[in-house]
Write a structure and sequence with these properties.
Layout (H helix, E strand, L loop, with lengths): L3 E6 L5 H10 L4 E4 L13 H10 L3 E4 L7 H8 L3 H11 L3 H15 L4 E5 L8 H10 L5 E4 L1
Parallel strand pairs: 1-4, 1-5, 2-3, 2-4
């Protein structure tokens, strides 16, 4: 049986709703795949997010190298999703991104229930889906979008 790796975006939701979804999915580790772990949404910047997760019994790990570079984020904000995808896929070829993808693969192989977090609500428009796909090439997984 393949391990399940969840993904979640927090656009348009609250920290309480995200924590509930993570708890219901029995997530043990939230992996933040944002290049910049800051947010104007209450509770989603790195430090408060980690604290909220800790209170729910969920660990936090920020893998900045799996975040979208600035030009990709700009393309996503402008609705140019194919451009964002191309930029991110090129970024995934870089050493830092590959090294952090290997870290993520080792965590999944170790049996932890993982969820990838980014901003975009729609997984089809978010790079976290590309991270999950690249991860699936290293370790067999089933992906579940929360």
């Amino acid at each position: 049986m393949k391990p399940v790796v969840a993904t979640i975006g927090y656009q348009g939701t609250t920290i309480a709703a995200v924590l509930q979804a993570l708890t219901e999915a029995r997530v043990e580790l939230l992996v933040d795949v944002r290049a910049v772990a800051g947010s104007r949404r209450p509770g989603f910047s790195k430090t408060p997010l980690a604290a909220n997760l800790h209170g729910a019994g969920i660990d936090y790990l920020h893998l900045r190298g799996l975040g979208t570079p600035a030009p990709g984020r700009a393309a996503a904000r402008a609705g140019r999703h194919e451009e964002m995808r191309a930029i991110f896929l090129k970024h995934l070829e870089q050493h830092e991104a590959r090294a952090e993808l290997d870290v993520l693969a080792d965590i999944v192989r170790g049996g932890r229930r993982v969820c990838l977090l980014c901003f975009e609500a729609d997984p089809a428009h978010c790079h976290r889906t590309l991270v999950a796909k690249a991860l699936s090439e290293l370790v067999p997984i089933d992906v579940r979008h929360l």
